[in-house]
Design brief:
By secondary structure, the protein is an alpha+beta fold. 17% of the residues lie in helices and 41% in strands.
C-alpha cells in the first residue's frame, strides 16, 4: 500500500503500520491530492479505508446558516460539523466566514448515502 500511495503526485512521505491499521501521509505544499484518491488506492490494495484525520486549508463560506469549507487548489467543498461536546464550535466556524483557514478535522469512514461530504472540525484557525 505504501508504494502505491508514494506514486501519487504530491505525496511527500508515507508511513504505514499494518499492525495498527494506520497510515500517515505527508503531502507537498500546493498538492492536488484528495482524500477520495487515497481511499480509492487503499481499496485497490485490498484494505478498507476508515476514518481519516487531516489538516486542510481553504476558505469558509456560510450557506443556509451552515459553514462550508472550499479547499484551496481543489474543486472540493465540505460541510463543517462540530464534534460531540464542542459547544460553540459552529459559531466559531461561522465567525471565520470569508477567511482563509487551516482546519484540523476528521473525515468519517463513510458518508450517508446522498449526503454531501462533511468534515468534523476539531480546530480551525485563520491563516491571514
Amino acid at each position: 500500500m505504501r508504494v502505491a500511495i508514494e506514486k501519487v503526485e504530491g505525496v511527500r512521505e508515507v508511513e504505514v503500520t499494518l499492525a495498527d491499521g494506520q497510515a500517515r501521509i505527508e503531502l507537498e505544499p500546493g498538492n492536488r491530492v484528495t482524500v477520495e484518491q487515497i481511499r480509492s488506492l487503499v481499496r485497490d490494495q485490498g484494505f478498507t479505508p476508515k476514518q481519516a484525520r487531516l489538516r486542510v486549508r481553504g476558505r469558509i463560506a456560510v450557506s443556509d446558516g451552515e459553514p462550508r469549507l472550499a479547499v484551496t487548489g481543489l474543486d472540493r467543498k465540505y460541510a463543517l460539523l462540530a464534534p460531540a461536546g464542542a459547544q460553540g464550535r459552529m459559531a466559531e466556524l461561522r465567525r471565520l466566514a470569508g477567511r482563509e483557514v487551516e482546519v484540523e478535522a476528521e473525515l468519517p469512514e463513510a458518508a450517508a448515502e446522498g449526503s454531501p461530504p462533511a468534515l468534523i472540525a476539531l480546530a480551525a484557525r485563520a491563516r491571514d
